[in-house]
Design a protein that fits this description.
Layout (H helix, E strand, L loop, with lengths): L15 H34 L4 H8 L3 H13 L3 E4 L3 E4 L1 H23 L4 H11 L5 H16 L1
Antiparallel strand pairs: 1-2
Helix pairs in contact: 1-4, 2-3, 4-5, 4-6
Length: 152
């Protein structure tokens, strides 16, 4: 049987305010996603080798160096990074805080997916996308679920 052979349940629309709130949340998450990915990667590069160079950022994100340069300018304007000539990119205090927050969200989501039985490679990749779109409430539920399984 094909899907078209089964009548579909009519969609139940929530009220317009609730509907638009969900879309606003997604748009805000998309806006912050790239910023968080950059500061998290910069923190990782600094932690691994003492510095984050534009060429390394580009290679790890799979983008061209001019793309990275444009984003680094934006991050500097937002007070998240400092660029030092011939020395690479460094996070400000605000940048380090944002990177730590993003890393913790990733860790919680990845742990949750692993607890559900998702393979480590898939959990790591999926967490990379989910971490930016999950609400604080849902993230806390993921954390409680994972903690309860660990304590059991």
């Amino acid at each position: 049987m094909q899907d078209s052979d089964h009548p579909r349940e009519p969609a139940v629309l929530v009220d317009a305010e609730a509907h638009s709130a969900g879309f606003r949340q997604v748009r805000e998450a998309r806006r912050l996603e790239l910023v968080e990915d950059y500061v998290e990667l910069i923190a990782d590069l600094i932690g691994d080798g003492g510095e984050a160079r534009q060429v390394d950022i580009a290679a790890r994100l799979g983008v061209a160096q001019p793309t990275v340069a444009k984003m680094l300018k934006r991050l500097a304007e937002d007070g998240l990074v400092q660029q030092r000539p011939y020395r690479g990119v460094f996070l400000t205090e605000a940048g380090r805080a944002l990177a730590a927050e993003a890393r913790e969200r990733h860790r919680i989501v990845e742990s949750f997916l692993l607890a559900l039985g998702v393979s480590p490679d898939v959990a790591r990749c999926d967490a990379e996308g989910i971490e930016h779109h999950v609400s604080r409430e849902t993230l806390e539920a993921f954390r409680r679920f994972t903690a309860a399984r660990t304590d059991a």
